Request: fold
Amino acid sequence: MKLINDLIWAFFLKHDYTIQWKLPDELKTIKVLDLLIEKHFPEGTSPFLLQIGANDGITLDPIHHLVTSAWQGVLVEPNPAARLKLTENYRHCPRLRFAPEAIGEKNGRSRFYGGARDIHYSLNRTEVNREEGSFEVDVLDLSSFLRKYDVKHIDILIVDVEGGDYAIMKQLCNLNSLKPKIIQFEHAHMTKEKWTELCLELNGMGYSIHYFSRGIMRDTIACLADK
Reply:
């Protein structure tokens, strides 16, 4: 049955269809990410979280309310003002680390664009359409970042980087040995072709795909199927 479902899903994606489920009004508040995390990492466990684009840890954050002091991981936020709030908002989690680098396609230095009061910063100026408040940051590709922070295993990956999500997810897919159990990435800034490509690639790696939109948010959740 799983094989049939996967083939049907792949067929619709390949032919540019979007699949959405209509839920009764009283069920629209169901949060797929919450359900998956609660199922696979119940209270008392210590999953490893990598969150790329963590901002202040609260604003539009999909996971803060689930993180406990037992969790470990690395939260990535290049914006110093947001990172200061991030560390404060996770002061109860001593096993979390906070990284100042941006993750991109290659190592080096780059400008990080965004307005002074804007929470949406990006390495890509066209995504934020402004240069006010921009500054330079160190950039690492995903493999270099994982080596620097000695990350050998990821349970939960959250990616929200205002237009850089595709490049990060492609790098992850090339690291076949590194398969987080649960992935959420923003696809709002992707073309349908790039999003379809990622979904098909993840599906081929053993992930089931869940798509949802909420207000301005457009996210994809991928969960590694149980063996």
In short: Residues 2-14 form the longest helix (13 residues). The chain has a mean pLDDT of 84. The first strand starts at residue 48 and ends at 52.
